[in-house]
């Protein structure tokens, strides 16, 4: 038996007709709710815990500086979970939509790599919080704050690091940066208290400044939290519209034009259906 659509028909029709606006520019803001349907736990934000520690106290440069082995144990677990997970129908629908729209950009807060594995075109997505499969260099901290990294970065590193899952890990066991040979290898994600990549943020800002009919589609993240809130607001300011897909009904309080309540894996493919009838855009 087919699952009945959770979306009220009138809401869907009105969204679909806006989606077919000629030359519509689409910005998708992606959050943890997109990957929840792939079985990945949310650690960001309030309530995320691991081994009785608040995830917000583990995912910081201070924590890594104090005990890199412990922080690596947390990330090894998350890396394995992410690499074992599979993209769900919403990841695929967004990837296919991106291929079929000339002006489409996704700003993903997820670090699990599932959008990439669903075939989302690389030039149509920015990973604003980095990626679990990326390794970079941690030079440490001094009294003045962070020490600038040497800039080393390695992508698609999916093998386990030689760090035991349990017990205290001495600092000497953490693999060194192969470039400067003094820094420690760290996960290539953005920690609490770290700033987002300027180039990435500039690209999204530039996108927001272009005129024309636009849609900000917020999937699986609170539209009240930075940067999603700022993007939705910027799109509205230029006369565009905002749609929210979330398991909780909070679109109305966020001023969304459409609020779709339900599992992203079910809702996203359905709301993007009209785009699938188009041919892929040839660059
Ligand atoms: Zn280095």
TrEMBL record:
<keyword id="KW-0862">Zinc</keyword>
<dbReference type="InterPro" id="IPR026591">
    <property type="entry name" value="Sirtuin_cat_small_dom_sf"/>
</dbReference>
<feature type="binding site">
    <location>
        <position position="137"/>
    </location>
    <ligand>
        <name>Zn(2+)</name>
    </ligand>
</feature>
<dbReference type="GO" id="GO:0017136">
    <property type="term" value="F:histone deacetylase activity, NAD-dependent"/>
</dbReference>
<dbReference type="GO" id="GO:0070403">
    <property type="term" value="F:NAD+ binding"/>
</dbReference>
<dbReference type="GO" id="GO:0005634">
    <property type="term" value="C:nucleus"/>
</dbReference>
<keyword id="KW-0479">Metal-binding</keyword>
<dbReference type="Pfam" id="PF02146">
    <property type="entry name" value="SIR2"/>
</dbReference>
<feature type="binding site">
    <location>
        <position position="180"/>
    </location>
    <ligand>
        <name>Zn(2+)</name>
    </ligand>
</feature>
<dbReference type="InterPro" id="IPR029035">
    <property type="entry name" value="DHS-like_NAD/FAD-binding_dom"/>
</dbReference>
<feature type="binding site">
    <location>
        <position position="177"/>
    </location>
    <ligand>
        <name>Zn(2+)</name>
    </ligand>
</feature>
<dbReference type="GO" id="GO:0046872">
    <property type="term" value="F:metal ion binding"/>
</dbReference>
<dbReference type="InterPro" id="IPR003000">
    <property type="entry name" value="Sirtuin"/>
</dbReference>
<feature type="active site" description="Proton acceptor">
    <location>
        <position position="129"/>
    </location>
</feature>
<dbReference type="InterPro" id="IPR026590">
    <property type="entry name" value="Ssirtuin_cat_dom"/>
</dbReference>
<feature type="binding site">
    <location>
        <position position="150"/>
    </location>
    <ligand>
        <name>Zn(2+)</name>
    </ligand>
</feature>
<dbReference type="InterPro" id="IPR050134">
    <property type="entry name" value="NAD-dep_sirtuin_deacylases"/>
</dbReference>
<protein>
    <submittedName>
        <fullName>DHS-like NAD/FAD-binding domain-containing protein</fullName>
    </submittedName>
</protein>
<feature type="domain" description="Deacetylase sirtuin-type">
    <location>
        <begin position="5"/>
        <end position="278"/>
    </location>
</feature>
<keyword id="KW-0520">NAD</keyword>
<comment type="similarity">
    <text>Belongs to the sirtuin family. Class I subfamily.</text>
</comment>
<keyword id="KW-0808">Transferase</keyword>
């Amino acid at each position: 038996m087919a699952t009945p659509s959770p979306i009220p028909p009138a809401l869907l029709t009105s969204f679909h007709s806006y989606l077919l606006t000629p030359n519509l520019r689409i910005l998708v803001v992606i959050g943890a709710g997109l990957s929840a349907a792939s079985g990945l736990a949310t650690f960001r934000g309030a309530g995320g815990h691991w081994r009785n520690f608040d995830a917000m106290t583990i995912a910081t440069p201070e924590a890594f500086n104090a005990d890199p082995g412990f922080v690596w144990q947390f990330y090894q677990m998350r890396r394995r979970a992410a690499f074992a997970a599979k993209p769900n129908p919403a990841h695929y629908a967004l990837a296919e939509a991106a291929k079929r729209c000339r002006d489409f950009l996704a700003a993903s807060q997820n670090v699990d790599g599932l959008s990439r594995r669903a075939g989302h075109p690389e030039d149509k997505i920015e990973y604003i919080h980095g990626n679990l499969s990326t390794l970079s260099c941690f030079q440490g901290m001094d009294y003045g704050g962070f020490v600038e990294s040497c800039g080393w970065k390695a992508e698609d590193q999916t093998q386990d690091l030689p760090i035991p899952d349990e017990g205290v890990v001495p600092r000497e066991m953490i693999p060194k940066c192969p470039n400067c040979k003094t820094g420690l290898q760290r996960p290539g994600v953005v920690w609490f208290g770290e700033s987002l990549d300027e180039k990435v943020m500039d690209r999204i800002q530039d996108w927001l400044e272009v005129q024309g009919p636009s849609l900000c589609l917020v999937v699986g993240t609170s539209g009240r939290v930075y940067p999603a809130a700022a993007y939705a607001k910027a799109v509205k300011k230029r006369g565009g519209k905002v749609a929210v897909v979330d398991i909780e009904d909070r679109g109305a309080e966020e001023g969304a034009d459409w609020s779709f309540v339900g599992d992203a894996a079910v809702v996203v493919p359905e709301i993007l259906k009209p785009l699938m009838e188009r041919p892929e855009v040839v660059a």
